[in-house]
Design a protein that fits this description.
7 helices; mainly alpha; 3 strands; disordered N terminus
């Protein structure tokens, strides 16, 4: 009797990743140069991390969506799931895509309150859907802190 847990069945990891169109890519700073430069110079900290936390946490966690938009636009990928590395997935995400389309969902992530999103698990239908969010974010930050809060 084999007590090991086989999550992939008879498939190799490479075959399973290909079937799911799973892509893992570490981009160099040169590849992303200019992708989010307009936003980076507008950014200001809205909330602070713990005193010894990463001072750039808020900036980096927002900039990742600019990099993700660049990736989707340059590869023409659609129906993308962005999942932070501390999440576990227990189902085939491809089963969610038809439901997202049927409901007209272009972008979604969980909320912990009416005003606070936690984008650790994100669905993006297209680069265009994400672009609308990025334009909104850039517009809000370009208003500067005083006007943006109002």
């Amino acid at each position: 009797m084999n007590d090991s847990l086989d999550l992939l069945g008879d498939m190799t990891l490479k075959a399973r990743m290909a079937q799911l169109r799973f892509t893992a890519h570490l981009y160099s700073p040169a590849e992303l140069a200019g992708v989010h430069s307009d936003f980076a110079h507008l950014f200001y900290v809205v909330g602070k991390m713990t005193p010894d936390g990463n001072k750039n946490f808020n900036l980096f966690t927002t900039q990742r969506f600019f990099a993700l938009h660049w990736f989707m636009a340059t590869t023409n990928y659609t129906d993308v799931f962005h999942i932070e590395n501390d999440n576990l997935v227990y189902m085939n995400l491809l089963r969610l895509v038809p439901h997202m389309h049927a409901c007209g969902v272009g972008l979604t992530w969980p909320y912990v309150s009416a005003t606070e999103a936690v984008p650790g698990f994100v669905y993006l239908r297209s680069a265009e859907d994400l672009l609308h969010l990025l334009q909104y974010i850039t517009k809000i930050f370009s208003m500067r802190r005083k006007d943006a809060i109002q």
